[in-house]
TrEMBL record:
Record's keyword annotation contains Cell wall biogenesis/degradation: no
Cofactors: Mo-molybdopterin
InterPro entries recorded: Ig_E-set, MoCF_OxRdtse_dimer, Mopterin_OxRdtase_euk, OxRdtase_Mopterin-bd_dom, OxRdtase_Mopterin-bd_sf
Lineage: Bacteria, Bacillati, Bacillota, Bacilli, Bacillales
GO biological process, alphabetically ordered: sulfur compound metabolic process
Protein name: TMAO/DMSO reductase
Location of the Oxidoreductase molybdopterin-binding domain: 45-211
Region entry Disordered, spans: 1-20
Organism of derivation: Halalkalibacter krulwichiae
Amino acid sequence: MADRLNRNAKPTLTTRSLHPENKEAPFPFIGNDSVPTSLFYKRNHFDYPSLTYLNYWLPIGGFVTTPKVFSMQDLKNLPSKTLKVVLECAGNKRSYFRPKVFGEQWEKGAINQGFWTGVPLKTLLHSVGIQKEVTEVIIEGYDKGKKTGSNTLHSFKRSLPLEKALDPDTLIAYEYNEQPIPFEHGFPLRLIVPNWYAMASVKWIKQITLHIGTFKGPFQTEDYVYYPHVDNDQDSFPVTIHNVNSSIQQPLDKQILTKGSHTITGIAWTGLGSISKVEISIDHGTTWSQTAIQRSVTDRYAWTSWTYEWVVEEKGEYTIMAKATDTNGRTQPLTPFGTEKGTDIMLLIK
């Protein structure tokens, strides 16, 4: 492998499956504030839906006072906001799990960051009137199909607790990086739920329903669920908030370096609070050194970039480990639970 990352190369997505289309971002190339559409990972459960902007309407109903149907122009006439948000697939880094687990074998590239513009979902819910007993808000996408091992046709649906749906930063988005949302990523409308794994950010929104009780859809109770026990479903609970996490971007795994000074770079992110520190270990976790992190006061839903200057004086094989800690006291563990395992890299110094 080359001694350094070739920044003149044209990075592309890595295909994990074709039907449905699932493609991974080239992780070393996505450290900027805003990832371009060409490097935005693709995650689908079914084939892409067929719909157009011209006949698009958004109905909101269920346990509401006044059901309404919104046109795209209606939405664009409402006050909007723009947020920089990390979207991460709940299965990111799955390929590193031992033993192997079912699902797309993502490495580190099922993650994205960019600027989303839209209307707070709260604005729309208040306009239709929320009945007193409502507990959840169900968002249904136009994408549908048969789940693996099932003959039943399902559309992709997820629910949010009413409190999260009313968060002023939960958006019905219509733009990504100041352009209409690309079709592959949810055009014309996509839900954006900051700090939650991306399965909550439903694409191609078909309708919104206010619900009393607990929604039992398969993408809420079967998939995207933590199962603490290997042999049974006891104590299982749904995936929601990002775990604290970090990943190394440079050097590359199995890269060959020379003795001397090298800069280790990466990103860290969390769903609670913000990143307070990122640490590096070169001795398999015996000792840890703090990195220099780039804190952002305004971008509360963005990842944190970090660097560490490493001086290598001896030849040999090295393993670099990284772990992040957030302001809520959560530290990235060394063994996986769901999605938060760190990814070590191995190097040869010549």
